[in-house]
Amino acid sequence: MLAIRAFLGAVAGSMTSPLRPGDFRATINPLWSRHRLSGRVEEISPETSDTSTIVVRPGLGWRGGLAGQHVGVDVSIDGVWHRRTFSLSSPPGRPDGLIAITVKARPDGAVSRHIVHALRPGQTVRLGHPSGRFVLPDELPDRLLFVTAGSGITPVMSMLRHLAEGRRMPDVFLAHSARNASEVIFGEELRRIAAQFPNVRLYEHHTRPAGGRPAARLTMAALSAICTDIPERMAWVCGPLGMVDDAESYWRESGISDRLLTERFHSVVSPGGGQGGRVRFIRSGRETTATADVSLLAAGEEAGVLMPSGCQMGVCHSCLVPLVDGRVRDLRTGEEYGAPGDLIQTCVSAPARDVDIDL
Amino acid sequence: MAAPTPLSAGDIEELGEELDRLRAEVLASRGEDDARYIRRVIAAQRGLEAGGRLVMFASLLPPAWLAGTAMLTLAKILENMEIGHNVLHGQWDWMRDPGIHSTTWEWDSASPAAQWKYSHNYVHHTYTNVLGRDRDLGYSMLRVAPEQPWRPVYLAQPLYNLALAVVFEWGIALYDVEIERAWRREKDLDETLSHLGGALEKVARQGLKDYVVFPLLAGPAFLPVFLGNLTANVARNVWAHSVIFCGHFPDGTRTFTEEEIEGESRGEWYLRQLLGSANISGPPALHLLTGNLSHQIEHHLFPDLPSNRYAQIAPRVRALCERFGLPYTTGTLPRQTANVWGRILRLALPGPTRSRTGETSPEPVIPARAA
Ligand SMILES: Cc1cc2nc3c(=O)[nH]c(=O)nc-3n(C[C@H](O)[C@H](O)[C@H](O)COP(=O)(O)OP(=O)(O)OC[C@H]3O[C@@H](n4cnc5c(N)ncnc54)[C@H](O)[C@@H]3O)c2cc1C
Ligand code: FES
């Protein structure tokens, strides 16, 4: 059986050479390619004033993912493909086979604004495969704590939906921070789940409540007064950098860091150090110059080089490329490093001086 | 550059700036329409190829053979010219589409993409028309410029150029291996052998498809399908050969010496591309089928601009030529082809080694401005 398949595959390959059979299939329908995974936008529904959920039908080759994982999504803007990472907000294994991401349009966000305001049903997006460790363990703990803010709710929504479909809902405490009640992404659904399951507690923290006085941001110290059994819970935290940093130090100080999982949607870059320089992409024969605060990924994309990438914030290592010559600087730490042959993360590395990379 | 043009150094610099501006304008306006264009051409090409091969399966009926072969020929021409050549130039890299990118593209030609990109994009486009440096096939095998010293072998050049046209893709592939440079010890032998291996593998793969797999699949129509594929390949070869020879060899184009390009400025580089290239005039369908190499001048000035834009900027390039009193060589395909063949016949015989700078283009725009 396998031998027959391999034979047929070889025949099909020799019929389409130098292209692959998938290239021909994708010309008819992008969803029919296995080696370049695509999805078709089925539906776009607004969640809040600046956030929408995009429902996508993934094409052949989609392997599914776990609740809480994220996926690389490419959208074409003015003919140019742009990749960003989004957490899946849908539960895994939906019967209709669809998946969803929920995107907040950042004020000067090139891609998020396009997705929320310009993407239309019927258009094609490219997809990566789901990855990430911000997921539920195989064996569910009895008590869970989710702390989220803004669009940080998305991976947690996927987990909650997954749990709500399951046989048993564990004890869940969800603390979510948003400007006000109408700005809570998935607000209605969250409140409904909390009403439906007696052991789900929802605590909404509003920093700019409508008609009320502005409140301070949600801190772990404040939360521990409301959720008194934090140390007994397995915790997931996803939100702005300040919130995640605060959570990490809280759990570290309590000596229970192993009970905490965090997800950041972007990273801080520290400016300065080195002067940048010429960047040569050896294999594609391209050359460009980049200043010390521009990542090699951004510089390469700008120059039209096909740069592998994923999270674009230094966590997934999809963007590793061998350094041929020169030194680079880690944009997160400011540290300069790199010897020929080192695999560098282009998304968080800037040229410290002239560099050659093997791409 | 000591080129005898009527331009002052200041003029040349200004010309370069004008062309740089034109290029920047196109770069800034690339967008969805361009992306849609290339996607459509690719879809049409794949449709034609699949359709042509399918129709050819009914080849026992002569009209089907004819239709199938015609479709496949068209598909192969589009694949090599408007798609392959231009994608491999990186004209579409800005879209960052891994499916339409110079670093991932492979084409239906005997030359493996990587080897061809080196010899064509780098050597030919950098040293355009520089005798002794431009490894464009014409300059090494043929005597196409009177400045090239005559050798007895050139007596046969009309014949072997004809043969070359028929097997053009193999000729290029073999030539790109640079065996003669290995012979002269200018190129590493192992590297040459590995290039040769790559080319042979590619020839075998493409040959297997056209001459074994599809004919076998056709069963009783084995022979007609075999012949249909052969016809399509040969027709594509002859077409590509004609178009390419019209690009640099018609009267009006000129060659350069290595001394002339020493210390060449950006403006002078542009000028050399202008003077060394010739266009083919005709309707839009002709431009498409030549892969827009009918806009050879625009292509040589801006090798990596999307091909669909050449027609758009051509009037402006031509106006610049008028302004600076430079020739803008162009003519119809039959006329340019006849012209090139005339030259190949003429230069097969010993004779004039004089510089042809006095010659005017077939369609002189305006006479050279007095210096
Ligand atoms: C693992 C992971 C999961 C993610 N999941 C989601 C998700 O479910 N929903 C979602 O909306 N986004 C999510 N993101 C963020 C998303 O990938 C993009 O970074 C975001 O949409 C901004 O892209 P942009 O092109 O619009 O902004 P850009 O044009 O790239 O950036 C514009 C400006 O916004 C800043 N910026 C970028 N991202 C953020 C951010 N997250 N918070 C604050 N400022 C930012 C940049 O520093 C820059 O100054 C996720 C990111 C990661 C790494
Ligand atoms: S893209 Fe994920 S680490 Fe660089």
Automatic annotation (TrEMBL), chain A:
Residues 34-137 form the FAD-binding FR-type domain. One of its GO terms (molecular function) is metal ion binding. Its cofactor is FAD. Gene3D superfamilies: 3.10.20.30, Nucleotide-binding domain of ferredoxin-NADP reductase (FNR) module, Translation factors. It comes from the Bacteria. Pfam families: FAD_binding_6 (PF00970), Fer2 (PF00111), NAD_binding_1 (PF00175). Residues 277-359 form the 2Fe-2S ferredoxin-type domain. Keywords: 2Fe-2S, FAD, Flavoprotein, Iron, Iron-sulfur, Metal-binding, Oxidoreductase. This is Ferredoxin reductase.
Automatic annotation (TrEMBL), chain B:
One of its GO terms (molecular function) is oxidoreductase activity, acting on paired donors, with oxidation of a pair of donors resulting in the reduction of molecular oxygen to two molecules of water. InterPro entries: FA_desaturase_dom, Fatty_acid_desaturase. One of its GO terms (cellular component) is membrane. Residues 351-371 are annotated as: Disordered. Residues 64-330 form the Fatty acid desaturase domain. CDD domains: Delta6-FADS-like. GO terms for biological process: lipid biosynthetic process. It holds the Pfam family FA_desaturase. This is Acyl-CoA desaturase. It comes from Frankia nepalensis.
